[in-house]
Design a protein that fits this description.
globular; Elongation Factor Tu (Ef-tu), domain 3; six-stranded antiparallel beta sheet; 26 strands; seven-stranded mixed beta sheet; alpha+beta; Alpha-Beta Plaits; 5 domains
């Protein structure tokens, strides 16, 4: 009755109940019940149409007629064709040229989008997933995506299709930034980041069906990271050849696990103009994308403690170059600790297997909590390095004849013994090769990494 439906709807809105419905789109069974449940049980999206506009990009697609389109969810206000809106994330103004809504499998024209609506915008070719458009206040807490832990090389079965494969992967990487496509020109190699083996199958299928390309996915490599081992300083004075001027002194030290990059400035705006200090801050993620062991550097505090600009000679980009060289000098002086991805696991199986499985986990450098026994079934939890456990689901299935289960999830990065981790050479021209790096920055020699 109406009272029961109202009670159910209130509980769903408060997330105390979660409806589960079964059906078949192919036969139509259950479809009417599903549509009725959506209408009766799911709350209307909140949001005030008259408030300042607030939206977020959650997807990117490519349409044959429209080109790149950005899928957005509007949380407040309204969007109309030819509206100009501030992209807060990218710090630039965007202009909407067309608005579309999805109807079945087609995009149809729409005059506007209002609070609570989902639609597609043309005119934002450089918008990225997660970009905030307009006011960020009404947008709920940002969802943190599971980060890829593996890297794979992708190569065409026909070498003549390498250029086409690069273009296809660039488009897919734009639609899904987590792929993080890297093109290494010196080695003529394409690398993307993935979550696991299933994603390689999906990627192969998409390249074949959507782009008509046959590709080979090579064996995956674990993605390690680095963090400063000791506090150290790096100073770079980029003052020649003119016109240029950027003097940067950076102190780098380890931060709390999971803290990412923290930046602080002790330099007065008279010594380094705020726009150049912002240049230093904004370029840090790029400068830290490769450390002295070849991996991204994270969980650190970076302090700008000295430096200067020049009223006549300082140019945009000078402080980016100096920042990169100062960062690498500091990392080299203080050394870095290798970090490896860890997985939290839960294994369930027959108690006869607990001894063998426990031994396997220990041999994989895992950490184990006391087992829970329920009759003849045990549950084992703990943490294990991804590098040593990638194939264990197959081994466990073989060991238990498919009667044991393994569930894992990413559980952060831990320090890794130097002799058990993996380092790699710096890709491209290292800022530690000062003269060559400056020539590359000024365009005098070819870039070796894209």
């Amino acid at each position: 009755d109406a009272t029961l439906r109202q009670s159910l709807a209130s509980s769903v809105e408060a997330r105390r109940l979660f409806p589960v419905l079964c059906g078949s789109a192919k036969s139509g069974a259950g479809v009417k019940a599903l549509l009725n449940a959506v209408d009766d049980l799911l709350p209307d999206a909140p949001g005030a149409v008259n408030d300042p506009v607030s939206a977020v990009v959650f997807r990117r697609d490519r349409d044959e007629r429209l080109g790149q389109v950005a899928a957005v969810r509007v949380f407040a206000g309204s969007l109309k064709t030819r509206d100009r809106i501030q992209n807060l994330t990218a710090d630039r103004e965007e202009q909407i040229t067309q608005i579309k809504r999805l109807s079945l499998d087609r995009l149809e024209d729409a005059s506007q989008l209002q609070a609570g609506d989902i639609g597609f915008l043309s005119g934002l070719p450089d918008a990225q997933i997660g970009d905030v458009l307009g006011d960020e206040g009404p947008i709920p807490a940002v969802v943190s995506w599971s980060q890829p832990l593996l890297s794979v090389q992708v190569s065409p079965t026909d070498d003549a299709q390498l250029t086409d494969l690069l273009a296809a992967l660039r488009q897919l990487s734009a639609e899904d930034p987590l792929l993080d496509l890297r093109w290494y020109d010196d080695e003529r190699e394409l690398h993307v980041r993935i979550m696991g083996a299933i994603q390689t199958e999906i990627l192969t299928e998409i390249l074949q069906t959507r782009f008509g390309l046959e590709a080979k996915i090579h064996e995956p490599t674990v993605i390690y990271k680095e963090t400063p081992a000791n506090a150290a300083e790096g100073v770079e004075a980029y003052t020649m050849p003119k016109p240029c001027w950027a003097i940067v002194g950076l102190r780098i030290e380890a931060g709390e696990p999971g803290s990412g990059i923290e930046f602080h400035s002790l330099v007065d705006k008279i010594d380094i103009h705020p726009k150049y200090q912002n240049e230093v801050r904004q370029f840090l993620p790029t400068a830290l994308s490769q450390g002295i062991k070849g991996w991204e550097v994270t969980d650190l505090r970076v302090t700008l403690f000295e430096g200067s600009h020049h009223l006549l000679h300082s140019r945009p980009g000078d402080f980016k170059l100096a920042t990169h060289m100062a960062v690498m000098k500091a990392l080299q002086a203080g050394d870095t600790t290798l970090l490896e991805p860890m997985l939290a696991f839960e294994i369930r199986g027959h108690s006869d297997l607990i001894g063998r499985i426990t031994s396997d986990i220990i041999n994989m450098r895992g950490q184990i909590e006391p087992a829970k026994i329920d009759g003849e079934v045990f549950t084992l939890t703990g943490r294990v390095p991804l590098a040593t456990s990638m194939d264990y689901v197959v081994q466990l299935s073989s060991l238990s004849s498919g009667r044991a289960s393994l569930a894992t999830q990413f559980d952060g990065y831990d320090p890794c013994p130097a002799d058990l981790g993996q380092t790699r050479p710096y890709r491209g021209i290292s800022p530690l090769d000062r003269a060559k790096y400056i020539l590359w920055w000024r365009g005098a020699i070819k870039d070796s990494i894209r």
